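Sample intake sheet
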Amino acid sequence: MRHKKGKGFLMSDNGFIDYYELMQLSPSADADTIERIFRHLAMKFHPDNMESGDAERFRLIVDAHRVLSDPEKRAGYDVKYQSYWNEKWKIVSESRNKTAFDIDRINRDNVLSILYIQRRRDVKKPGVGTHEMARLLSMPPELVEFHVWYLREKGWVERTETGQMAITAVGVDQVEQDRLRVGKDHMLMTGDLAPEEPVPADLHLPPRDAD
């Protein structure tokens, strides 16, 4: 999950702040502990403290105390807190899945290969849209965007004027160098196929839509 600076404190993109981390508390901390830690931090970060005062940090601590010291508000916050950490744990679990990384490499190869085939079949219309690519590879559009980002950074893919993806000359060299191949179920349908490249009778792909 990405984070952004919230005037001196890390905040998630959806505005969630980990109050337990902010106040250095355990999620199971009781009311007395919350009060004791709050008083300590409030004194430390109060704007009038010439040594360690921090107005923004103080404001956040006051907000955290207001929520965590109220049983009803804390219960609602804890639901969001658990969801927040479930998402972070999913990221950790996925990072340990070596198979996922192997699949990502294969998917990038497939994206590049499809773009190679599309440009080779129709040089005037070399682009493929994100959602079209997602359907062809049975992949979420967000994951396609990740792979396109990587391929663009490498210089192998570019965006056309219509916003679609197209392979570059460097990308063509990469495909031919690695001799990438895609199965016929992943070959892109086009309106103008070269005579020497007939479409197999058993090839049925969804119609192309504009992204």
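Comment: The chain has two domains: 3-95, 98-186. Residues 71-95 form the longest helix (25 residues).
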